[in-house]
């Protein structure tokens, strides 16, 4: 117990230096956790991908549509349990700064393939009955103060015109990794308008999503689907949902990799800050350590004193940095344009890495000063004038 008190007193002996060191560590921990949160939020779509879902898109590019007639042929492929489809609608709600996913989907099958969107049965039934109905995520409802029965007017861009949708359902995300910021409406409503206008988009969907019997069969089922439409005017490319999201994010891959590397470089910065403080502290106490040895303190006691002081400063700074990260992440999310990161929260593994780094750095930073303090002879320590 006395040894612990001595560690704490040593850590706070030079209050200004200890405070600056702890603040430096806290800022570095804050930067580390914020960068890690941005990286994990960017890759959230990949992480939440279901292993038993395949995406079938146009072989040339995601932006080209596929014929609606493909649906039944895909459904007959062995291993396919359910087929649904979607169309990226886009459009403008309120103004162009209000961004969130707006998609036309198959009302009968979409929520079977995406069970992570939790919709009450009565709301889902109302959505299926009303052609211009829509279902929105809980965060969208909260952000724009929308409730069941409200009208959401959209100005079309990909699909020109003024569109009015009635909110008939609000879905809750099954877990934190599920996007709570989507708006979904019936593809049949989109198709109805295309037929009225005799648009070339009639009978077209954006992409197909299939639920398969086993993730182990993803490769052969993908090949079988693509073989159905080989040499057609709209050839397809089928891949796992995870691969689809990875390809979609590849354009920003180098930036995210740089941020990922930078977050771990910060760990090295924390180590340098603390190691510098500990070397200075140990040098100043050379005479004290020699006196303690004459009183019977062993090398293990000296090692514990140095390591304990380093850990006190490291843990104090890490705790302060983690405490500051929570409001910082919330403020960063609010400052970003709406919809950039549908899923943005501090993951448990980020907290774990921060704590682990704080403890590890506290120990590593003490290695050099502890070695000097324990190996130095008593006579040399008593003669030292610092």
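Sequence proposed for the structure above (386 residues):
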């Amino acid at each position: 117990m006395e040894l612990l008190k001595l560690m704490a007193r040593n850590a706070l002996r030079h209050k200004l230096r200890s405070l600056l060191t702890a603040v430096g560590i806290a800022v570095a921990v804050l930067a580390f956790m914020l960068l890690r949160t941005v990286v994990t939020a960017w890759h959230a779509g990949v992480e939440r991908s279901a292993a038993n879902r395949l995406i079938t898109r146009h072989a040339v590019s995601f932006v080209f549509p596929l014929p609606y007639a493909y649906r039944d042929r895909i459904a007959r492929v062995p291993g396919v349990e359910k087929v649904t489809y979607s169309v990226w609608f886009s459009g403008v709600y309120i103004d162009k700064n209000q961004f969130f996913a707006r998609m036309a989907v198959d009302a009968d099958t979409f929520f079977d393939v995406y069970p992570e969107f939790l919709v009450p049965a009565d709301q889902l039934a109302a959505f299926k009955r009303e052609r211009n109905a829509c279902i929105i995520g809980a965060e969208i409802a909260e952000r724009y103060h929308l409730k069941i029965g409200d009208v959401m007017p959209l100005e079309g861009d990909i699909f020109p015109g003024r569109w009015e949708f009635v909110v008939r359902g609000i879905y809750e995300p099954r877990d934190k990794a599920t996007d709570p910021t989507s708006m979904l409406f019936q593809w049949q409503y989109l198709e109805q308008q295309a037929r009225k206008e005799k648009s070339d988009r009639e009978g077209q969907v954006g992409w197909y999503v299939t639920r398969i019997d086993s993730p182990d069969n993803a490769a052969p089922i993908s090949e079988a689907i693509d073989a159905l439409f080989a040499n057609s005017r709209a050839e397809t490319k089928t891949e796992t949902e995870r691969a689809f999201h990875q390809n979609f994010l590849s354009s920003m891959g180098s930036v995210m990799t740089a941020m990922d590397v930078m977050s771990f470089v910060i760990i090295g910065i924390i180590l340098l800050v603390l190691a510098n403080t500990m070397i200075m502290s140990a040098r100043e106490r050379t005479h004290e350590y020699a006196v303690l040895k004459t009183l019977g303190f062993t090398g293990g006691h000296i090692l514990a004193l140095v390591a304990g002081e380093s850990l006190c400063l490291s843990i104090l700074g890490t705790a302060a940095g983690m405490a500051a990260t929570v409001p910082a992440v919330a403020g960063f999310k609010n400052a970003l344009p709406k919809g950039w990161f549908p899923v943005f929260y501090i993951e448990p593994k980020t907290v774990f890495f921060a704590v682990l780094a704080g403890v590890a750095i506290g120990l590593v930073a003490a290695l050099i000063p502890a070695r000097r303090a324990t190996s130095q002879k008593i006579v040399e320590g008593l003669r030292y004038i610092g």
